[in-house]
Amino acid sequence: MSDWTDKRPMSPHFQVWKWHVTMLGSILHRATGMALYGGAAIAVAWLFAITLGEDNYNQFASLVGSIPGQVIVFGLLWSAVYHALNGVRHLVWDAGHGFTPSTANFTGWLVLLLSLLGVAGIWLLAGLVPGIDPLGVWGAQP
Known about the structure:
- The protein is an all-alpha fold.
- 68% of the residues lie in helices and 0% in strands.
- Helix 1 (21-51) runs antiparallel to helix 2 (54-65), helix 1 (21-51) packs parallel to helix 4 and helix 3 (67-94) runs antiparallel to helix 4.
């Protein structure tokens, strides 16, 4: 038995709630917003590296070009795309539309899918996939 003596109801916790995509979307929106702050700090570090000279910039570029650096860049890019698309979803909600559970679930999955497809497209077009240069910018052979 619980020692709870307060007559008011306790707040539900994670074990009470059934997980759904709108809950995931809310958590991801907050998490991607925080990740974008980290991305801003990395952008500032990149600008400092540029101003400090070629050697410092090359060190920064090699760090970002490493596998962990690429994972971070990919995650930051996904955070930006997801946060922007989910922000549009929130603007639609602010206009009073899309609150039915079926619409909210559909748009939640749609934002997730479009963010992943958008990042994959940006990654491909930027020539960041080894051996693929669709725009011919980097001189890679098709």
